[in-house]
Specification:
7 helices; mainly alpha
Length: 173
C-alpha cells in the first residue's frame, strides 16, 4: 500500500496542486473554479464530437445527457462566490478541506482512478449509437472523475491578497 501511495497517489496530488497553483497565478481566480470549468470544457468537447458521430434521436439523447452533466458545474460557476474572494480565510478553509480529503478519501481516489483506467475497455456494444454514447460517457468520466477527486484533495495555492499577517505567517522565503 505504501508503494501505491508513494508512486501513484502522491505524484497525482502534487500534479493537481501544481495545476491549482498555475491556475491561480495565471487567472487570479479561486482554485475552486478550475474543476467546474474543466468539466464544462470536457462536456463542450463531447458536444462537438457528438455532433460529428451521432444523428437523430441518439444525438438529442446525447445532448440532453451532456447538458445534465454540465448544469451542476455551470450552476457552481455562476452562483458561486465572487472570483475575487480568494483570501486568507478561503485558503484556510480549502486547505482544511483538502487535508481531510487527502487523509480520509485516499481509497476513493484510487478506486476512481482504477475505474477510469478500466472503463474505456468495457464499453463494447453491438449498436453503433449506443457504442458512441458509452464511449462518450466513459471519456467524460475518465477526464473529469479523477480530476475532480484529485483537485479536491490537492493543497490549494496561497492567495495573493493584502493581509500582512497572512503573508508573514504563511509564506516562506
Amino acid at each position: 500500500m505504501h508503494w501505491i501511495n508513494r508512486y501513484i497517489d502522491q505524484p497525482l496530488l502534487d500534479g493537481a496542486a501544481s495545476s491549482l497553483r498555475a491556475w491561480h497565478i495565471r487567472t487570479g481566480l479561486s482554485p475552486e473554479r478550475l474543476e467546474p470549468l474543466w468539466n464544462i470544457v470536457v462536456t463542450g468537447l463531447l458536444v462537438f464530437a457528438a455532433g460529428h458521430f451521432l444523428a437523430g434521436p441518439a444525438l438529442l439523447l446525447c445532448y440532453g445527457g451532456l447538458l445534465m452533466l454540465a448544469l451542476p458545474s455551470a450552476w457552481t460557476l455562476f452562483t458561486g462566490r465572487n472570483a475575487n474572494d480568494y483570501n486568507a480565510a478561503a485558503y484556510k478553509r480549502l486547505r482544511t478541506r483538502a487535508f481531510m480529503k487527502r487523509e480520509a478519501e485516499w481509497a476513493v481516489r484510487l478506486s476512481i482512478l482504477f475505474t477510469a483506467a478500466c472503463l474505456p475497455f468495457l464499453t463494447r456494444s453491438g449498436d453503433p449509437s449506443a457504442a458512441y454514447f458509452m464511449i462518450g460517457a466513459s471519456l467524460w468520466f475518465v477526464l473529469t472523475g479523477p480530476a475532480r477527486s484529485y483537485l479536491a484533495a490537492a493543497e490549494p495555492p496561497m492567495p495573493r491578497d493584502g493581509d500582512p499577517s497572512f503573508k508573514t505567517d504563511l509564506q516562506f522565503g
